[in-house]
Amino acid sequence: METLKIVILSTVQGITELLPISSSAHILLLGRVFAIDISSALLVLFHLGTTLAILIFFWKKIFKDFLTKDRWYFYFKIILSSIPAGVFGFFFEDIISEKLRATWIIALSLIVWGIVTVVIEKRKLKPLKEINTVDDVPNITWKQAAIVGVAQALALIPGTSRSGISTIAGILTGMEKYTALEYSFLIGLPVLFGSFLWGVLKDYPLTEISHNQSEATLIVGITFLVGLISLQILKRNKKKNWLTLFGIYRIIIGIAVLIVAYAI
In this structure, are residues 54 and 29 in contact, taking their beta carbons and an 8 Å threshold? Predict the structure, then answer.
């Protein structure tokens, strides 16, 4: 793979994985532009750098009071939220990679969830009844964890955005917006690390780059650094209406993809 293409793809991954705009959609579509086969194995490698960025950025929040009972309850909630995506990803991996990566599916997912994102922030929808409102991730309830986990599984459809749909579900269950986004990152850790380990166990050869370790290092390094920068930008702007901005962006990109793919 050419170095410039690696840099572009890795940079885009580092930005889009951590924003509610679907990294898989951007990487798969760019892969077609660059005439690169973006396999499941290669996607796993792209995700590794951003996963490490999330782990480092939230290190204190994750491991604070590590030995306390409340902290371990919190870990079990993260695991609960991760189970649906892990189960669906395991059993439907072939369908996802072979059937759900069509351009029209990616484009429609971008548009539909973009509209939902804008509506939720603009109308300030009230949370579901009888579910606690929280502004710090360790305080989420088991019910909130379960609902967000089910929502995260839908992100296996390319174009949906794992962080986006998890954040939306979190808001609707009563979480403060940035708290919901933080939780979406944290519950992504088991799923993303699990995907990487599963790829290794299945002996995904990572054929595209296994012969060139410098390319693998470049991908992980760039996605890690760009991911850290993206997380910091989000934190600094957590009180702004960034959901609406990203929702509009998704709609525009989705429409543009449909026009380019089917109308030109």
Answer: no
Report the domain count for the chain: 1
Torsion, CA 194, CA 196, CA 198, CA 201, rounded to 10: -140
Amino acid at 46: F
| Distance between CA atoms of residues 159 and 174, nearest Å | 25
Strand partners, 134: 175
Q: Name, in order, each residue with C-beta under 8 angstroms of 13's C-beta and a sequence gap of 6 or more.
A: 23, 26, 27, 46, 47, 49, 50, 223, 226
Evaluate whether 243 touches 177 at the Cβ level (below 8 Å). yes
CB 61 within 8 A of CB 137: yes
* Alpha carbon distance 47, 88 (integer Å): 18
Neighbours of 38 (CB within 10 A): 20
- Of the chain, the end-to-end C-alpha distance in Å amounts to 28
Average pLDDT, the chain: 82
* Residues 21-71 pLDDT 10s: 888 788 888 888 888 777 666 777 788 888 899 999 999 888 888 888 888
Cβ atoms of 181 and 234 within 8 Å: the answer is yes
Tell me the per-residue pLDDT of 221-247, one tens digit each, with 9 for 90 and over: 999 999 999 898 888 877 777 888 889
Could you say which residues of the chain have pLDDT below 50? Answer: 129-132, 207-208, 210
Measured CA to CA, the distance from residue 155 to residue 157 in angstroms comes to 5
Domain extent, residue 66, equals 3-263
pLDDT at 121: 80
